[in-house]
Design brief:
Length: 368
């Protein structure tokens, strides 16, 4: 299936690896991005206008963020477009702020956006240090690149570390984050905050640091609704600092109508494979389906933070949970309509599910 709408105009940023020249030129409209399944309803940027940009020289060989921000701003002002990056490492001295109707795309893993030595000297819009933030932009895409926050080289333990995140989708409708590899985080790797109609698909998060940071979650959905987290590989445990793999959290608003499907997840040593983190607002209509959870201290759990709102209409089905010493499912509190069916469990702790109206539990089995 392909996403609906017209083909997208492409603005190509060609950076010669040796000469560090910068040229942005209009190209023929590209093909629409194929959607892996019917579940992803957020096509991201679908710009239709073409404009040619030309920058005569590379502004700073040690910091490409100013050049890239100018391209993003110009593309959005002209109605939108794709800023296409070739393979190479692009050092950022400050966060990139994506704008409405713009797609930021690389060629895959070899396109690396990396926080540079001066990165921590400039804060993001909310006082943190995101590598890329949408900051209220609508209809955006971030795809086919590696995002390296340089947490091993920088000291990311600064004020605001957990106010913005490595890839930060915030106050945005229609956001697609696809085929992004996050490396060396000092905060959450991919976060969706106060947003709707989002698709976080086929990404790869990794935590390798030890003893330097805490609360390094993988894919974290906060105060948001109407989205899918699908086909991602989340490994928060190659080092010792990792926390939860997948999260749905309420701080200032409920989280609802979100599907977590077909992800491969190992939670970090400080966390769980997946957590529903409840505050003063409820979590509802969440589907946790066909995921592989492995090697985590705990499986899928509910945690309470500054509140104990209701959790209801949750489906946990067709998942596999392996090598998890804690409970493979741990739901307690104000519950209703919790469905736990057809999950396969191997070398993991027992299920803990509080009694609640509408609960359905069936066909969960051992299967090593």
């Amino acid at each position: 299936m392909k996403s609906a709408g017209p083909k997208v105009a492409v603005l190509v940023l060609a950076l010669a690896a040796a000469g560090l020249g910068v040229a942005v030129v209009a190209a023929n409209p590209g093909a629409e991005t194929p959607v892996a399944t019917d579940y992803c309803r957020a096509p991201g940027s679908q710009a239709t206008q073409v404009k040619e940009f030309t920058t005569q020289q590379y502004l700073d060989p040690e910091d490409t963020s100013k050049s890239l921000q100018q391209l993003i701003d110009s593309a959005s002002k002209d109605g939108g477009g794709i800023v296409q990056l070739p393979a190479g490492t692009f050092t950022l001295g400050r966060p990139l702020v994506l704008k409405s109707n713009v797609a930021l795309k690389g060629t895959g893993a070899a396109t690396v956006l990396k926080a540079g030595p001066e990165f921590l000297e400039t804060k993001g819009p909310f006082g943190g240090h995101p590598l890329i933030t949408t900051n209220g932009a609508q209809n955006v895409t971030i795809s086919h690149l590696t995002a390296d926050q340089s947490g091993e080289e920088l000291d990311g333990n600064t004020p605001g570390r957990l106010t913005e995140y490595l890839i930060d989708v915030r106050h945005t409708t229609n956001a697609l984050v696809e085929d992004v590899r996050t490396r060396n985080p000092f905060t959450y790797s991919i976060a969706v905050v106060a947003s709707s109609n989002f698709c976080i698909r086929n990404n790869d998060t990794l935590v390798t640091s030890s003893g330097k940071y805490d609360q390094l979650d993988g894919i974290h959905i906060t105060d948001s609704h109407g989205g899918i987290v699908e086909g991602n590989t989340v490994d928060q445990r190659q080092g010792d600092d990792g926390d939860d793999g997948l999260v749905a959290q309420t701080i200032g608003a409920p989280v609802y109508d979100v599907t977590y499907k077909n992800n491969k997840v190992r939670g970090g040593s400080h966390g769980s494979a997946m957590q529903l983190a409840v505050g003063k607002h409820e979590i509802r209509n969440i589907s946790v389906e066909a995921n592989r959870f492995w090697g985590s201290p705990n499986g899928v759990k509910i945690g309470y933070y500054d509140g104990n709102a209701a959790v209801h209409d949750i489906v946990v089905k067709n998942n596999s949970v392996t090598d998890t010493p804690g409970p493979w499912l741990d739901f307690q509190g104000d519950l209703k309509n919790i469905t736990v069916t057809d999950n396969v469990v191997c070398q993991s702790g027992a299920m803990k599910l509080g009694e609640a109206p509408g609960n359905v539990v069936s066909n969960n089995r051992e299967g090593c």
